[in-house]
Write a structure and sequence with these properties.
heterodimer, A: mainly beta, four-stranded antiparallel beta sheet, 3% helix, B: alpha+beta, five-stranded antiparallel beta sheet, 10 helices, 39 strands, WD repeat (chain A), WD40_rpt (chain A), initiation factor (chain A), protein biosynthesis (chain A), Eukaryotic translation initiation factor 3 subunit I (chain A)
Chain lengths: 325, 629
């Protein structure tokens, strides 16, 4: 099936995310536009207007009521998903790099960059207590003195967050006390993206060190590695198969292909168990910055440096594929 | 050792005994005796010819300095046959010894020149002889082990990570098999010896040679700041160059070493290393030669001395080259006033000129030997009288025929590249001006003709590579003709790709910051021509066996792969099972966090579903409505 092309951004895509049920796809980019689309036909629902700089991250709560975005304009904003109205604005001292709702949709966290003399922090606001957001007083702020946080996700039950750092480290911080629960260093360079599996028992990291790695969410035990020859910008786990999709820079060009019409940048599919690549999908005209699986596993989306978002529905062969084992 | 054999020694011995008293009285100052030399094998003449002899001696020996004293001992009315000369300074004496020793006065008289002080030294050698300590036998292992690989795989070296890592691989059909990988094995790059026996690595302090199954260090050569090396074709000698080491008295820029013993054989000056190797070796390693302004110096091994003790004076010599098939040197000299340019073939060691070819209106010449020395091609660029442009001819010398006949092939276009077919009598020429470049193949036939076989035009190439066995040829358009690559050209996507010669891509091997790849050479085959013929005849039979072997190894690989995959899947499934159990245990907490809504499965809340109608974009059509009149 031909992929659906979403053209709603003027600059390179920074993150794309499906809501829990998968009918909506949120996309943000280095322009101030925040878009939401119907994933089934690519029709745009609308935009969330307010940001004045590049938007680095986006998240939707489990019930698709709220949308959270973080931007280089030093703000983290909360939106009403259906109406597009901006519900809250948290001003920060530096760019907001990563953000997310917890499992219950009640607590938001975001990290801010180390910039202009301000160090990296992770801030936690409980939405059930409106005073926190109104007076800009998070109930907890975890400082991050060494390597700044480049990606972060919530744990399965909202008890901790898992943060990836510029130096390749992974840290587990308690969302209640802020204490460091666990620390692991498997990557040698910056962690660009972290995404959990559907059931949140494990997560995949995408790193500048040309690899993606699978970890257990609770123990942070390293399970699998997927090696490529280029930095991996994003990785996502299939909700129905033992597959992972990697998006990143370009492979050493295949000399024999001469087509100039098709974009040559590829999303690469690996099998989780055997760590082997089994497929590639071309299409982007620039490196892929963000990938996401549809919650039903029958399609996936990718956002690229070229500003395009492509929604791919898998062919029957994808569902029949099996390794000899 | 030489002295014991020379007849002159005994007479000198006697003399020194006689002179003993006088010597004792002489003041024991170093200067006095250090400037004296003894010349032996001087003609024994009567008083009538003594004056003449003295003049001759004086002429020869005053070249090295002012002679302050001379003594011609006599006996029975004739000179004894040895003389004493004293110089102004010891340095002159040393010079005289260096340059006049071995001087051939005439057929019967070759001078032996020594420092007088040397006699003292050698006469006072102690009677006690210490037996040299027995060195433990250094077992280097089988240096040719890689030739015995049952799969006949080749080896190659790869340097990557900007020179930090060097690795030697077997060229296995599926993927390279690493044999030995060492960090910072070399400081710049590596070189294989011509027959593949040694791997040479470069270091600030010199060169190291490695070999054998485990690539143990075989030998070290201390040459501070070494930059370039060369091997003799037989691998017996190693030549190293360093710009740092040269001094007036002690030439150390180029050093020739004995590979196996590590001994420094001789040092040479070197003005410029622009055209390395400076010394060109004969095919059997018996001679090596270099060209300097108007001079061709040929040295012989193992003495490392000049052949016949002197260099050849060849005015205007521009280039020379050894035949790969015999000890013949080809060299050419450009036009000189009335004398035309010429190419000369000289046999060594006799120095007999076996062929001279005059050439007219020559601009430039290039010498191309065929691999076995069967033919020499001289590419001659000429500007014919009365014209402006440059025209190229190939003068083909048939080396194996009597009197070396020469045939000429005239080329209409400018030449880009030329290459003989190895082991054959064909050559390939790339000619023309870009973008209209063609390749032509010629056959040097036995009947005296050189036939143009075929021309292919529209070639995008600037270099020719024949397969080492001949028969096949690769044309390449190379951006830079560099064998070694110290500067990293690209920072990313460094790799080397292996292809079959028919163009099928076999492997892509990525290597971060890749610098150099070198195939390990092989020594020439030990098989006779008849044996090779027989094998070619039986090739079909051998092919069957090899194909079967290949198929077996393929299935073995698949079996291993399948086994590995199965194990990995098992492990993963075990892990997932554990994770699932924990997940199920936490169900209640999840329900609580989401206000009782079960979201574990996508279809957990079928009741909550709505029906929606969705529109899909099919087509866009633009219809122009006619303007109302």
């Amino acid at each position: 099936m031909k992929p659906i092309l979403l053209q709603g951004h003027e600059r390179s895509i920074t993150q794309i995310k499906y809501n829990r049920e998968g009918d909506l796809l949120f996309t943000v980019a280095k322009d101030p536009i925040v878009n939401v689309w119907y994933s089934i036909n690519g029709e745009r629902l609308g935009t969330y207007n307010g940001h004045t700089g590049a938007v680095w991250c986006v998240d939707a709560d489990w019930d698709t009521r709220h949308v959270l975005t973080g931007s280089a304009d030093n703000s983290c904003r909360l939106w009403d998903c259906e109406t597009g109205k901006q519900l809250a604005l948290v001003k920060t001292n530096s760019a907001v790099r990563t953000c997310g709702f917890d499992f219950g949709g009640n607590i938001i966290m975001f990290s801010t960059d180390k910039q202009m003399g301000y160090q990296c922090f992770v801030s936690f606001f409980d939405l059930r207590d409106p005073s926190q957001i109104e007076s800009d007083e998070p109930y907890m702020k975890i400082p991050c003195n060494e390597s700044k946080i480049t990606s972060a996700v919530w744990g399965p039950l909202g008890e901790f967050i898992i943060a990836g750092h510029e130096n390749g480290e992974l840290n587990q911080f308690s969302a209640k006390s802020g204490e460091l629960l666990m620390n692991v260093k498997e990557h040698t360079k910056q962690i660009n993206d972290i995404q959990t599996s559907r059931d949140m028992t494990m997560f995949i990291t995408a790193s500048k060190d040309n690899s993606a790695k699978l970890f257990d969410s609770t123990t942070l035990e390293h399970q699998k590695s997927f090696r490529t020859e280029r930095p991996v910008n994003s990785a996502a786990l299939s909700p129905i198969f033992d597959h992972v999709v990697l998006g990143g820079g370009q492979e050493a060009m295949d000399v024999t292909t001469t087509s100039t019409r098709i974009g040559k940048f590829e999303a690469r599919f690996f099998h989780l168990g055997v760590e082997e690549e089994f497929g590639r999908i071309k299409g982007h005209f620039g490196p892929i910055n963000s990938v996401a699986f549809h919650p039903d596993g029958k399609s996936y989306s990718s956002g690229g440096e070229d500003g395009y978002v492509r929604i791919h529905y898998f062919d029957p062969q994808y569902f029949e594929f099996e390794f000899e084992a | 050792n030489d002295y014991v054999k020379e007849p002159g020694f005994f007479s000198l011995f006697l003399f020194a005994e006689l002179l003993g008293d006088v010597l004792k009285d002489q003041p024991q100052e170093a200067d006095g005796i250090d400037s004296v030399i003894v010349v032996d094998n001087v003609p024994q003449v009567g008083p009538d010819r003594l004056e003449k002899l003295k003049n001759v001696i004086h002429k020869i020996f005053s070249k090295f300095g002012k002679i302050t004293n001379e003594f011609y001992p006599e006996a029975d009315g004739k000179t004894k046959g040895y003389i004493f000369l004293e110089y102004m300074s010891p340095a002159h004496a040393v010079d005289a010894v260096k340059n006049a020793d071995g001087y051939k006065l005439d057929k019967q008289h070759t001078f032996r020149v020594n420092l007088f002080t040397d006699f003292d030294k050698y006469m006072t050698i102690s009677e006690e002889w210490d037996i040299p300590e027995k060195q433990p036998f250094k077992d280097l292992g089988n240096l040719r082990y890689w030739l015995e690989d049952p799969d006949c795989r080749d080896q190659y070296s790869v340097i990557f990570e900007s020179g930090d890592r060097t690795c030697i691989y077997w060229n296995d059909a599926k993927e390279p098999v690493a044999i030995e990988e060492r960090p910072r094995w070399t400081e710049t790059y590596v070189r294989w010896s011509p027959k593949g026996t040694y791997l040479a690595t470069f270091h600030q302090r010199g060169i190291a040679l490695w070999g054998g199954e485990k690539f143990k260090q075989i030998q070290r050569f201390s040459h501070q700041g070494v930059q370039l090396i060369d091997f003799s074709p037989c691998e017996r000698y190693l030549v190293t160059f360093s710009p740092l080491m040269d001094t007036q008295d002690d030439p150390q820029a180029i050093i020739i070493w004995d590979t196996l013993t590590g001994q420094k054989k001789r040092g040479f000056h070197c003005e410029s290393s622009a055209h390395w190797p400076i010394f060109k070796w004969s095919h059997d390693g018996k001679f090596f030669a270099r060209m300097t302004s108007d001079t061709l110096s040929i040295y012989e091994t193992p003495s490392m001395g000049l052949l016949d003790k002197k260099s050849l004076k060849i005015n205007g010599i521009k280039d020379f080259s050894w035949s790969p098939g015999g000890n013949i040197i080809a060299f050419w000299v450009p036009e000189d006033k009335d004398i035309p340019a010429r190419v000369t073939l000289m046999q060594l060691p006799s120095r007999q000129e076996i062929r001279v070819r005059n050439l007219f209106n020559v601009v430039d010449c290039k010498l191309h030997w065929q691999k076995n020395g069967d033919y020499l091609c001289v590419k001659v660029d000429r500007t014919p009288k009365g014209t402006q442009g440059v025209v190229t001819n190939f003068e083909i010398f048939r080396m194996r025929e009597k009197q070396v006949p020469v045939d000429v092939v005239e080329m209409k276009e400018s030449i880009i590249a030329f290459a003989w077919e190895p082991n054959g009598s064909k050559f390939a020429v790339l000619h023309g001006e870009p973008p209209r470049i063609s390749i032509s193949f010629y056959h040097v036939k036995n009947n005296g003709k050189i036939e143009l076989i075929k021309t292919f035009d529209k070639q995008q190439a600037n270099t020719i590579f024949w397969s080492p066995q001949g028969q096949f040829l690769v044309l390449a358009g190379l951006r830079r003709n560099s064998i070694l690559c110290l500067e990293v050209i690209h920072r990313v996507d460094n790799a080397y790709w292996l292809w079959t010669f028919q163009g099928r891509l076999l492997q892509k091997n990525n290597k971060d910051r890749f610098c150099q790849l070198l195939w390990r050479p092989r020594p020439p085959t030990l098989l006779s021509q008849d044996q090779i013929k027989q094998i070619k005849k039986d090739l079909k039979r051998y092919s069957k066996i090899f194909e079967q072997k290949d198929r077996l190894s393929q299935t073995k690989a698949s079996k291993e792969l399948v086994e590995r995959r199965r194990t990995m899947m098992e492990e993963f499934r075990k892990y997932r099972k554990m994770a699932q159990e924990l997940y199920l245990e936490q169900k209640n907490e999840r329900l609580e966090l989401r206000g009782g809504v079960d979201t574990d499965e996508l279809d957990s809340n079928v009741d909550d579903w709505e029906e929606e109608t969705v529109e899909f974009f099919i087509n866009e059509e633009i219809i122009t409505i006619a303007e109302p009149e």
